[in-house]
User: Fold these one by one.
Assistant:
Number 1:
Amino acid sequence: MATLREVRGRITGVKKTQKITKAMKMVAAAKLGRAQNAVASARPYAAAMSGVLHHLMDQTADVQLELLRPREVRATAIVVVTADRGLCGAFNVNLIRAAANHIDTQYPGWATKGNVKVICVGKKGRDFFSKGSYNVTGRYVGLFDKLELSHALTISRALIHGYLAGEYDQVELIYNEFVSVTRQRIVVEKFLPVPVDGVEADGNRRRRSTLDVIYEPSKEQLLELLLPKHLNFRVWRALLESNAAEQGARMSAMENATSNASEMIRVLQLQYNKARQTAITKELLEIVSGAEALSEAE
Amino acid sequence: MYEKPFHAEIITPRRVVFRGEITSLSAPGVEGGFQVLAGHAPLLSAISVGQLTIKSTDGNDIRYAASGGFVEVRSNNVVVLAESAERADEIDIDRARAAHERAERRLHSQEEGVDAERARAALLRALNRLKVARSE
């Protein structure tokens, strides 16, 4: 049986930990609010952008742009978006496992030959993939402290450059999508070549394409201008989604930790009380038997 | 003169900058500036870094420093998709000035690894911001 002092020490320890997890939960909740806002405010742009993109793709079905044209895949690039920090439950572990699994099943044997280029966004993914036998060609860490559009731009430009230079023949994104505070969904998306039927046609698409539209400059040039912006925005969205999902995961992980700590404190308190009770009983017994011994001696 | 109003939106990846009724929009098209009034023919145009001006229904001009994007006009509805659009009176002049200096330094440093194209684009954006913020 643990001594009183030991149990008391553990209770204080757990209480301290609980204070930290509670604070982390609160911080995550505040960050989650901001992250969700950012996701929501990116939606109108997404809708308008995909409308324009579809319209242009409809109108320029015969144009052959390098960013659109699928080619034989000899090497592939996978962008793995994880968090920079831990203490967010299985958020990073699940994503890393899914990414490694995707690489193994879709491209068996490619990784060892270096034909799967892994581009890591986030410290956790970088740490994992740098240790293994993976060919890590891009590392972007520390972005999530303050997400900027220029971060997305840097990444998308590097990806487009690598694709056009023939370093890889396709690019996939894998990241956590925010579903709810307690749920994230891992999505694997084709990024390059730009999937032509990536987003389903909306209702007014047909109607719009019958209009006589003035294009400045030409349709083809517009599409060429639009595609890099579209890709840049897709990276931006992936970063926003992952960030919101991470904060949600951290919030619920810290919530669990806090309630686990409460349960632990309850059990320890019980143990403490029992130990105290036992000690008192023992002391009383000693006093009583001591007194008896004295009176017998008389 | 009575000008017919139409609906317009200015949208950036970060937020919807403007949404409402206006009577005119002037944009820095890549093939020259153009103006959109009510009843304009359907149009899809790329715009470059420059000043975007809208006239609200009460006759006031609202000016924005836009850094490239697209303008889509269809059936009395105008959507501006801009990388960024800052209202003239909300531009942080000190920040723009700092960005300007940074870009100049980069361009002239002749160092290895300096992305000249990117530095030039940053310079243009900074100059545009300063210009829009200062012109009255």
Number 2:
Amino acid sequence: MANTAQLARTAYRNQATQRVLSVLSAFIGHHGARGVTEIARALSMNKNMAHRALTVLTHRGYLTRDASGERYQLGYRVLVLDGGEADNFDIAALCRPYLEALHGLTGESVFLSIIVGRSRVNIDWIEARGRRVSNGQRGRSVPLHCTRMSRALLACLSDAEVEDYLRIAAPLNRYDALFPATANETAEHVWADIRQVRRNGHLIWRNPQQQYGAAYVAFPVLDSVHRPHAVVTVGGPFERFGPDRIGALLPGMRTLLDPLHRQSKLFPAPPVFMSGTL
Amino acid sequence: MSSSAQRALRILEAIGVADRPLGVTELGRNLAIPAGTAFRSLDALERGGLVSRFQSSPRYVLGPTLNRLRHTLFAQFPIRDVCTPYLRQLAFASGETTSLTVAVGWYGVRIAAAPGVNEVTSSPPLGVAGTLATGGACRAILAFLADGSAARMATWAQKHALPIPAAHRLEAELVTIRQRGFAVEAAPFAARRASIALPIRAGGGTHAAIAIEGPVLDLDNPRYHDDLGRWTEIVAAIEDLARIHPALFADPFGHLERDTVVFDDIR
């Protein structure tokens, strides 16, 4: 009899624990604060039970009262517990195997670029052997209208964002000395490149200014709502990586990048702000 | 108040701060809980996904639910998303791992990082780094908090028996950081080299700092580095954003009194 009573008490205690833990889990995915009534309704428990669970969790720092003092938000205690899983989605780590595969397929230089502020920045690349195309300093900022590699990223923003950018970046020729490949080009040239990216899902171009010329093809990497994570670009000397070879390799490059496009949709792209310094 | 739930949460904390998987016996002994009781708590935690067995062994690590809670909380720091591209730019430019630390109470919490591209880089986990007197990023924040903050923090630390440097030494270092505009921290594995931490200043204060965690500076001449100007410009671009979009730099715990935030297992 005593054993039965003891078992019943244990079961009750475990139920109480489960209730507290389920209240904590109810905050997953909720970025705003939650109230007692809302929690009780969501978990089909009465308000007293929900309130007791919230009190336990607040006492231990797993939850805190929000600024209004009436609702609850996740607490700072959660920050100290290390789950051992990677906390950061890293676009460079995700793309690296695909850069290597593209380099393996084409034998050419491959670049990974992201938007930082109102600029493009290369954050990874693999250089081809022999004669190769080079791409400036590590981490150098290139305005989003300068160079077609940048425009492949600009094309992934909304029309309103592109308009904002072009207004802020005007006059567009102020960086012509630094980026001769797109010198003397107007907003209409920028829009023409943007339309090509949006129509084809990639951008192909030639830089005649570089010695002997170089050709490139760029593929935007997007999230599930078509915001830009990055752009992957393959480039090589024109005599080796001309239009015929790019055309022949294009289906293979697209197939190779398909899994990357699927994976990149699982993570939201970082926000882009047109304000701030260029 | 449910003592069984309190016990389960204490067990969760013990597993969460341990540097290796823990078994029932060890947990029971460390927390002065009978093994049977500890086992029942672990059972409840495991059912909730808050702990899981380490490689099918009888030892426990934190579970997937905890990671989802952490991700939810990290998402409440919009500064994290804003700074991520800049962290990547700095990581690629410097070759070293870069990180973002924010102040929560009198603690610094490392909430984002971008791995470096050098052959050898460090990458400590995200989470609480220590009090604001600990390490370059934390001190870079403390140096630019309101006047008297260091003294307030010292009083708080004394109350909770937390070790912090002597007041005169800490204040002298904070003065140097204010004059220089950034903090340095001696690198543990490279003689006379130092990492750098730059505060993100906006709205007359700061609650965040960006650190380049590798030994990028000469400890004896930290102002002299060819790329210092570029790193400063990158952080200045973030400060510009903070001025234009202050909501993106909102602190989800900013409404709490600093003194009330206590991690009783961080020293």
